[in-house]
């Protein structure tokens, strides 16, 4: 009986230490800003203001692009647009976010793609200007480019 109480006490102490450790654990990394606006040119498919929304969990990050100025040329089914978003790193090089996530959209509807998955490192500063957004819809490639730097500034991971 005495051995059982000792084991029980040790288990309770270990549990208390684990809870205390969680209380003082660092929170998940956060990207700033969480959203930014760009002005995109998609050639014959339109162009205008678009919003990029970013999330981060450790080295995994996602970006979602939505724009009421960029329209779908035809109706598209959910998760049918293959998208590659290339962002420029302030330190040189690029980071690619890709995926096939999108809501169903009617012909002429505002475009939303993402979340697109990518990998980031602590301190990465990513900017849409100088990069590109490529969407493949029914085999047709649509390439968009930012016409100016994003506002309020680059994403910092």
TrEMBL record:
Give the UniProt keywords, A-Z: Signal
Check the record and name the InterPro entries matching this protein: TAT_signal (IPR006311)
Signal peptide positions are 1-25
User: What is the superkingdom listed in this entry's lineage?
Assistant: Bacteria
Q: What is this protein called?
A: Autotransporter-associated beta strand repeat-containing protein
Q: Report the source organism.
A: Streptomyces rubradiris
């Amino acid at each position: 009986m005495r051995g059982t109480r000792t084991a029980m006490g040790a288990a309770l102490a270990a549990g208390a230490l684990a809870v205390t450790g969680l209380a003082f654990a660092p929170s998940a990394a956060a990207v700033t800003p969480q959203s930014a606006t760009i002005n995109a040119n998609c050639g014959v498919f339109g162009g205008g203001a678009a919003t990029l929304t970013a999330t981060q969990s450790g080295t995994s990050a996602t970006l979602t692009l939505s724009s009421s100025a960029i329209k779908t040329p035809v109706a598209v089914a959910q998760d049918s647009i293959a998208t590659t978003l290339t962002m420029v790193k302030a330190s040189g090089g690029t980071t690619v976010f890709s995926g096939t996530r999108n809501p169903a959209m009617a012909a002429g509807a505002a475009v939303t793609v993402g979340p697109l998955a990518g990998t980031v490192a602590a301190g990465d500063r990513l900017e849409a200007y100088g990069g590109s957004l490529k969407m493949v819809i029914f085999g047709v490639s649509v390439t968009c480019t930012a016409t100016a730097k994003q506002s309020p500034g680059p994403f910092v991971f």
